[in-house]
Amino acid sequence: MIKGYEIERKFLVEFPDIEKLKVKEKRSIFQTYLKNDENGTQKRVRKIECGDNIIYTYTEKLFLTSVTRKEMEYDIDESEYQRLLTQAQEDYPPVRKVRYVFEYENQVFELDTYPFSADLAVLEIEMENAEQQINFPEYLNIIKEVTDDVRYSNLSLATAGEFPES
Hints:
Layout: E1 2-14, E2 25-34, E3 42-50, E4 53-63, E5 68-76, H1 78-85, E6 95-104, E7 107-113, E8 120-126, E9 142-145, H2 154-160
Antiparallel strand pairs: 1-5, 1-8, 1-9, 2-3, 2-6, 3-4, 4-5, 6-7, 7-8
């Protein structure tokens, strides 16, 4: 179980040459939102395919600021995943994405690509503190930061089925 705080920033990028990323891990993610708690805690389950492995996770997030969240996440088995799917938020579509995890200058980046775009992707980095300096790879074209823009949340992207117009 992972408990704690997540400090994360997100950037809209042009779809890069994946070969340049030196990918450590490629994950196909199917994410389903569950009904929220009364206190606004967002709950979700994920089915993550990574090579020949399938991992199921359960996550609860409470958004404190645009960059900081209180998070609890742990692995579950397939039967628990199937049980939790019965609590799916019916008006929220599932999120489908492929995540490429790579390192650059001792930083771990996650590039999320979506089936509806061959041109754009979302780059995420988890940080130790909100003021941390980010060193971006020169082979990535950062269009803009979207950390504070709810239109680039997984839920908004899945609902729209496209990236918003800038």
